[in-house]
Amino acid sequence: MLIGEIEHWWTNLRLMMEERGEVVTWDVFEKQFFVEYFPNSVRYAKKEEIFELVQGSMFVVEYMERFRHIGCFHFLPLNEEWQCQKFENGFRGDIKMMVMPFV
Fold first, then answer.
1. Using CA atoms, how far apart are residues 90 and 87, in angstroms rounded to an integer?
2. 29 and 10 Cβ atoms separated by less than 8 Å
3. Structural contact between residues 87 and 62, judged by C-beta atoms closer than 8 angstroms
4. Which of 25, 31, 58, 62 is deepest in the core (most CB within 10 A)?
């Protein structure tokens, strides 16, 4: 599904990796893609954003989508338990009170 410049970039990178005998996986592609197309400053900003994200005036669905989107840019290993706690702690107070008894 890659087209244009990105298709050429990936084709060349993949060929170089295969020539070196490196295994080409989704994780490798994803890391290389973010390094190539998202500067360190953007990645750093996204890392900070996930730590500061709270629901605020967003609907729960909007908050969830934003959380998932930002999570795509995060390169530190975030285990599922941490992600769940962070997500729950970001809820508005009224929603947090309704959700916490079920956690």
1. 5
2. yes
3. no
4. 58
Q: What is the mean predicted confidence (pLDDT) over 24-33?
A: 87
Q: What is the 3-state secondary structure (H, E, C) of the chain?
A: CCCHHHHHHHHHHHHHHHHCCCCCCHHHHHHHHHHHHCCHHHHHHHHHHHHHCCCCCCCHHHHHHHHHHHHCCCCCCCCHHHHHHHHHHCCCHHHHHHHHHHC
pTM comes to 0.60
Side-chain-side CA neighbours of residue 93 (13 Å): 0
Cα–Cα distances (Å) from 55 to 34, 45, 84, 92, in that order, read 26, 18, 14, 6
